[in-house]
Design a protein that fits this description.
- With about 120 residues, the chain is mostly beta strands.
- It has no helices and 11 strands.
- Strand 5 and strand 6 form a beta hairpin.
Length: about 120
């Protein structure tokens, strides 16, 4: 029943930076992982970055060294700081909360925020 709300998407020029935010109505400590996904038109939704309860991050190869995922448990918010943006980074970015109950995986999703990288 938790809700996730993304914000921060915008039109930005190549080489620019953005910070996306994901605000959760529930404690993010309730979730095993907080994830950011990207979906471009005609493409499947792919995992871009992930962070565990313990704060361990994961990044897809293409964004390593450019994107940073972080969490603020006091604010129940997860961030994705994106730098040196490229046109290939364009897409709708979705926040995802991933957790298990009785060995069944559950996922809560936000509605997404649009990121467009173009000159």
């Amino acid at each position: 029943q938790g809700h996730l709300v993304e914000s921060g998407g915008a039109l930005v020029q190549p080489g620019g930076s953005l910070r996306l935010s994901c605000a959760s109505s529930e404690s993010i400590d309730d979730y095993n992982n907080m994830n950011w996904y990207r979906q471009a038109p005609g493409e499947q939704r792919i995992l871009v970055a992930s962070i565990t309860r313990a704060g361990s991050p994961y990044y897809v190869d293409f964004v390593k060294g450019r994107f940073t995922i972080s969490r603020d448990n006091a604010k129940n918010t997860v961030y994705l700081h994106m730098t040196t943006l490229k046109p290939e980074d364009t897409g709708v970015y979705f926040c995802n909360a991933q957790f298990w109950r009785a060995s069944i995986e559950y996922n809560n999703w936000g509605q997404g925020t649009q990121v467009t990288v173009s000159s």
